[in-house]
Amino acid sequence: MADLRPGVLFDVDGTLLDTNYLHTLAWWRALRATGHDEITMQQCHSAIGIASEGLVRHLTGGEDEEAVDRHSEEYEPLKADLTAFPRAADLLRACHDAGLLVVLATSGQEGDLDWMVPAIGVSEDVLAGATTSGDVEEAKPEPDLLTVAVERYGLDPEQTVVVGDTVWDVAAAERGGLRSIMVTCGGIGRAELLEAGADEVYDDPADLLAHLDSSLLGQVARAVPNDVAGRS
């Protein structure tokens, strides 16, 4: 236990990158194109955060690989419009400099990291690593993405915080025995996130960064020995 490190597991879509509404549009188009005309944009948005196959099951009650593939096709041109939330990269850097191991935990595919990391604008030295849907059999809201990250990177579950933006992130953290901080910039309101069990809620990465010292992340960082802070 003495060798375990404190850390922070960051969701990407809707938390660091302003992509949730792009995904909503892509899923709505994909589902309509594959015969699911009854699904609304609101329903699509509420399901963002669930991995693709699970999202389709959640919305339609069954499997539909064609819809999953069509979402990828619909989303590809929308990438031209994606942007990082203000101060997202600065938040990751601040966590790293405070001595926390910074890990991305995304329901996306491993190949998505090739465009996600540059889009965030964070330098590679800040990140200890990442877990993606390819690392697990079940992605969010199951805790596997988080528990694999905890084990792979030697994190202390009692000193590791999940940062996300959906009720599915909260559920995954809770099932994994981890505390969570949520942001509302993905489109889910503060009350709903708190009701789901989030420990803290902020507006966006910039808001969390502004309150970093008084947040759960600040609490965890203060427990980091001085000779560890600032290095991976």
UniProtKB/TrEMBL annotation:
Domain of life: Bacteria
Pfam families for this protein: Hydrolase (PF00702)
GO molecular function, one term: hydrolase activity
Name this protein carries in UniProt: HAD family hydrolase
Organism: Arsenicicoccus bolidensis
Gene3D superfamilies: HAD superfamily/HAD-like, Putative phosphatase, domain 2
Keywords carried by this UniProt record: Hydrolase
UniProt-listed InterPro entries: HAD-like_hydrolase_sf, HAD-like_sf, HAD-SF_hydro_IA, HAD_sf, PGP-like_dom2
